[in-house]
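Chain A, query sequence.
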Amino acid sequence: MNSEALAGTGGLIRAALRRDRVRIGVWMAAIIAMVATSAESVKSLFPTQADLDQAAAASSNPAIMAFNGPDIALDTVGGQIVFQIGAPGLVIVGLMTLLTVIRLTRGEEEPGRLELVRALPVGRQAPIVAAGAIGLGMSVVVGGAGALALIATGQAASGSVLYGSQLASMAAVFVGVSLVTAQITENARLAGGLAGVTLAVAFVARAIGDMGDVWLSWLSPIGWAQQTRSFGDERWWPLLLSLGLLICLIALAVTLQGRRDLGAGLLAPQPGPATAGSRLRSALALATRLQRGSVIGWCAGLAGLGAVYGSIIDAIEDFVNDNPTMADFLTASGGASLADSYLATSMHFTALIGTAAAVQWTLRLRTEETSMRAEPVLATAVSRVEWTRSHLIVALVGSVAAMASAAVGLGGAASIATRDPALLWRVGVAALVHVPAMWLTVGLTLAFVGRLPRFATAAWAIVAFGFVIAMFGTVLQLPGWAIDLSPYEHVPLSPAESVSATPLAVLLGVTAALVAVGLDGLRRRDIG
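Chain A, predicted structure.
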């Protein structure tokens, strides 16, 4: 890579930081605040060593480890902080750099903006280097600030710095992953999807590994980060695995970029037929055709994730039978069985992931509008309402299909593992009760697209908020009104809880109002 190829890199970095300063700042501030708030909350939740010991006994079970990570140093405040943030925290850090790098690379190239930039004295490799530098800079800042936040709350410096390095290494790996996927396809959405699938596979491999097949954890960068064992028998060498992978991925991305044309991907799109078939002559048929690949992919992914979680349910029952302490804890809590709680939590987590798909399908309206593909459709006899309704139907029906797929995967695997066919029906109910919350998010997204199109991507905030409340709500000790803002907090956690129709009816009523607002906005405002 010579200096000519890097010409203009500094200018691109400054321009990107100026344009995305709010987006980048919010990402980093939110993650740093998550670490700092979690630290203070854990200290207040477990003020004595006896509290820590009790929490350690209750946390060391396969169900919780599948979500959070290995049970390392749980009898210390630092170990509990790292465990409570756990694998979901590392996933969030990976998402931060994944979305940022895709936006700065393929997101600039797809609409043709990068072609205008390259008309200036800007080197061929400058855009990819600028995006990588910004992603790695975010990784270092988040890791360093996270370590300082832990030190400020009184945690040991070595463990705090090692945990900050965990965060930085995870974020950096997905800088490399995103740079590679941005070279594969000319579609920013597909490039982000490929990187997202990689992140999901890393999470699942780590989850199975932490349940017993430890070697699988060593196939995942999330596992590498957690195997540094912060605040336990600390070890730094797993970070070398992340560094080595990052270097390989960056080298691969630079090589791949040199083998393709500007605006193209390594995988060339296949041209379609010159004329549409009879089944493609309606707005709904077009919307279905445009989004069917994404819907099928998400359904398959959620079914696979559900199958992974369902297949390990027998290990949880074995753990309870072999652990009197856990049995006493469940008895004292007076709640449902651990198996039911595990199934409810698994479905809740899966529904949150599925909501990301529902938001993506709804935002396709805005993508079609900004890419100027909506205008030719609306120039025909298709009305705005019909065009909007077609994509809305895809999002609503797709939400049901996604949850049905997750139920088949989770319920089917759990039924086979426990030889209890009734579990499939119970998990199916657990999946369907989450649909109203997903539809509410779809309605909110449509309202943004209709009324505040420039801020349509703000709909992702409700997904992120749902994750934060579900994963860290207890640890962060948020007030009740703040927790109630998440629609998922009003969904009964079946099969651990009984199903009540009232909250579901309220969610559907709010959804209908939001859809009406969105449709009205799209009918009144300019398109394009």
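The chain is about 75% helix and 0% strand. The CA atoms of residues 302 and 313 lie 17 Å apart.
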